[in-house]
Amino acid sequence: MMEWLNIALFEAGGRPVLLTDLICSVLGLTTVVLAGRNSKYNFYVGYLYTAALFVLFWQRSLLASLLLQPISLAINAFGHWRWTHPRESERSSQDALSLKVSMLGWGERIAAIAAVLVIALVWGKSMDTLFPADPHPYLDCLLTTLILTAQLLSAMKKWDCWVAWLLVNIVQTALHLSVGNYFMGAVSLLYLGNGLWSLLSWRKLYRNDA
To answer: What is the pLDDT of residues 166-193, one digit of tens each?
Structure first.
């Protein structure tokens, strides 16, 4: 079923880059670039991206990642609603129908960091017990928890989401390059560059509405 998605387009670092890899990379990058530019259309691309990842993980029998896609879809739908249906006090000064950028307080940041670490630790312990073949269960779970946290913060239009995305991008870039996966390493570098730009861009948006 849909074997054409597994067509090898080219090689990078001795590894074949499949059509499905390219589709997911383009959709993922488009989503975060649009989000960084404060465009609500990132959510429409996000729906396609989630669907593409679902197919990718299904084909490769990555069940743990597959089961997370409904969560990502729910966060995307929640963010779509929040960005386009702000309360009176949350409206952007530039667009009354758009949610303004806000920031977490320091107490909220500490609570978020603690929650990420605890969830990753408990989840990693479970994965280590259920799937002992995974060489990095705690790192995998920490990255996944960070990704979901970044998605949720982005859905609430919190500037802090880009800090979380930068942490994710730095670790992912290092991991991909360390195992010779140069194509995904290059994609992660693009994510990293967009994250840095978006961090500054959203900071300016926050100051405009402060």
So the answer is: 999 998 888 878 767 777 788 889 999 9
Spell out the domain ranges in the chain: 3-85+105-209
Q: Are 46 and 31 in contact (CB under 8 A)?
A: yes
Give the DSSP per-residue string, 85-121: S--GGGB-SS-TTSBPPB---HHHHHHHHHHHHHHHH
Reference 145, options 165, 119, 166, 171; nearest CA is 119
pTM of model > 0.85: yes
Q: Could you read off the pLDDT of 59-89 as tens digits, one per residue?
A: 776 666 777 889 999 999 999 999 999 999 9
Which residue type does 142 have? L
**Three-state secondary structure along 17-64?**
EEHHHHHHHHHHHHHHHHHHCCCCCHHHHHHHHHHHHHHHHHHCCCHH
Residue 19 · residue 181 · CB < 8 Å: no
Residues 82 and 61: their CA atoms lie apart, in Å, by 33
